[in-house]
Fold this sequence. Notes:
The chain has 66 residues and is α+β, with helices and mostly antiparallel strands. The protein contains 1 helix and 3 strands; from the N terminus they run ββαβ. A 3-stranded antiparallel sheet has the order 2-1-3, with helices on one face. The chain is elongated, with a radius of gyration of 12 Å. The protein has one helix at 36-47; strands at 11-18, 21-30, 59-65. β1 and β2 form a beta hairpin.
Amino acid sequence: LDACGAQDRRATVSLQTTLAGIVELDSVSIGGRGDAALRDCVSEGMWAIGLPSTFDDPWRRWVAKA
């Protein structure tokens, strides 16, 4: 959110992971004014995340809130 210029907002992202990393973003919702450009920015940031080795499930669904 900070990198997208939305420090004052909250976000919820539903995603799926495998051992290889994030494989699907099911939904991205932004509190307040959640315009498409902001959702795209948050989505791009999520795709750039490298998961640590503690994410060791073959497949799992997560909900991340910030």
